[in-house]
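wait is this the right file?? whatever heres the structure
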């Protein structure tokens, strides 16, 4: 009987094994995860779950009974020591398993603060997994002071939760502005004003020099010499694809595990999907860190494991929830040269449209789902309305789809 092993029990891994069964695969499936919890959603961790608004059971992508019912062997709390591609085996907690096809959905790992500047002190956290959030949750008591290092979406989402819970929040960003790596100055301005209005102190062009404390963090020194007394610290300085296992197996890497358009790695019997995988995209390569990509890419890989010969066509979209604002992002803004701002129909709704010349690349829509949906459809259809049409408040966005 054919045996497919999937390493990584996150969104991509769970989607892949489910798709194998719906596509009619009747062989043996093993899903291996390092965490002890069954596959769960990660986005709510830094939002609803941390706020205490979502129960643990609601995080789970499927009830545990699903895996039993579908005859999927779910091995949790298991560490894959190595892969032997030549013999098509892998070692898990010292046990050797043979596979016919293998998929790597190992996700990504958060960047930690170096121990030399206090990263190993107690009270210093990253936001990535369930255990991370469970560990930091008791720290969120009104009146305490949290320092957040990093002004990307994870840092800003954590800041929003802390502010809503009544904490004193200081956020430092080494770049000139928050969201500098991923968004326009206009989007940065919008979220800076939003957080400032909720009492968050944002320090841009400011780095962290070091953290101090006896076993547990009690103070921070910033790059400008500022000394802060802090109760705990959250590090949100990005993530990196989890490629160590693939690298040790001799697979080709390129900003993640390099795959072809179907999700196949440099070894014909090994596939990759999700945060850890880089795929061809419009003449270049991209690695997307998003739930939709993890699902879609994994499902394509499942089909191709069964010989369906389907190319994955990325449709980048993302979201972030902060306070009562839902930011929805469609497309990739790389290479934009100007921004068109459009106010929405409702109070506080706004969208920022990224153009390169006359070509629409991406849309950031804050509390404006209509602008997001139409922008997403325009980008996927390869249509680029004239910038002046977008900025004109009387333009019916829907009409642009048929123009």
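ok assuming it is, sequence goes like this
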């Amino acid at each position: 009987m054919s045996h497919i092993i999937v390493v990584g029990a996150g969104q991509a891994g769970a989607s892949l094994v489910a798709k194998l069964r719906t596509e009619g695969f009747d062989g043996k499936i093993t899903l291996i995860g390092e965490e002890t919890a069954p596959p769960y959603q990660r986005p709510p961790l830094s939002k609803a779950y941390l706020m205490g608004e979502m129960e643990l059971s609601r995080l789970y992508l499927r009830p545990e009974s699903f895996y039993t019912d579908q005859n999927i062997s779910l091995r949790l709390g298991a560490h894959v020591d190595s892969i032997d591609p030549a013999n098509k085996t892998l070692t898990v907690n010292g046990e050797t398993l043979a596979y016919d096809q293998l998929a790597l959905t190992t996700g990504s790992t958060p960047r930690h603060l170096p121990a030399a500047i206090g990263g190993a002190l107690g009270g210093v956290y990253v936001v990535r997994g369930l255990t991370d959030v469970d560990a930091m949750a008791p720290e969120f008591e009104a009146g305490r002071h949290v320092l957040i290092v990093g002004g990307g979406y994870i840092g800003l989402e954590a800041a929003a939760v802390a502010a809503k819970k009544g904490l004193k929040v200081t956020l430092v960003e080494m770049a000139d502005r928050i969201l500098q790596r991923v968004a326009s100055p206009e989007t940065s301005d919008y979220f800076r004003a939003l957080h400032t209005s909720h009492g968050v102190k944002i320090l841009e062009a400011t780095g962290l020099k070091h953290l101090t404390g006896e076993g547990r963090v009690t103070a921070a020194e910033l790059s400008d010499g500022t000394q802060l007394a802090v109760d705990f610290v959250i590090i949100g300085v990005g993530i990196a694809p989890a490629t160590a296992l693939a690298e040790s197996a001799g697979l080709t890497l390129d900003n993640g595990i390099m795959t072809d358009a179907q999700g196949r790695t440099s070894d014909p019997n090994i596939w990759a999907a999700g945060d850890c995988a880089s795929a061809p995209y419009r003449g270049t390569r991209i690695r997307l860190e998003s739930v939709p990509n993890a699902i879609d890419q994994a499902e394509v890989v499942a089909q191709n494991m069964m010989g369906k010969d389907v190319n994955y066509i990325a449709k980048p979209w993302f979201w972030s929830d902060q306070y009562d604002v839902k930011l929805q992002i469609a497309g990739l803004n790389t290479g934009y040269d100007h921004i068109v701002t459009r106010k929405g129909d409702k109070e506080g709704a706004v969208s920022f449209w990224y153009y390169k010349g006359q070509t629409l690349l991406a849309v950031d829509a804050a509390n404006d789902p209509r602008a997001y949906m139409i922008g997403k459809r325009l980008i996927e259809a390869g249509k680029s309305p004239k910038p002046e049409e977008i900025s004109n408040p009387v333009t019916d966005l829907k009409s642009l789809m048929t123009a």
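The chain has a mean pLDDT of 96. so i think its the right one actually
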